[in-house]
Amino acid sequence: MKKLFAETLKSAIVINLKTISHLTCDIILRSDHIIKIEFKEVEELKLDHVIDIFNIIQPLAPVKKCLILISLANYINPSVEVREFWAAKERNEISLAEAILINNLPMTLIVNFYLNINKPQRPTKIFKNETDAIDWLKHVT
Known about the structure:
Helix content is 41%, strand content 30%. It has helices at residues 2-12, 47-60, 80-87, 105-118, 130-140; strands spanning 16-21, 25-30, 34-39, 42-45, 66-71, 76-78, 95-101, 124-127. By secondary structure, the protein is of the alpha/beta class. It starts with a helix and ends with a helix. It has a single domain, classed as Transcription Regulator spoIIAA (2-Layer Sandwich), CATH 3.30.750.
């Protein structure tokens, strides 16, 4: 019984395999194959920024379609073009589902606007804690 518990505990440990820093965020490949995007505080997130991010994620993704965890602990202001680009069906070629971590009201309002107006073409949901977000991502498929 002890051996089974140790194996279960060991499999629950997640480490960051690779981190790539960008002007607007850190992009992290986790050992559970989830890609985490931790946004820095950015006055305005522009289209060229998210195109860069998308181009970094493509070769980093361990599988053709990956699960993405987006952390918006810091305030960002995405332009209209950014919201349209990220919501587009073409992003489905890399993203299977996206969980968005938010811990403040302004970002909650911005992301709710994005979800209701831009209507991302893949499962996307807001979370207040990372554990719930990861659980949802792992069970959304």
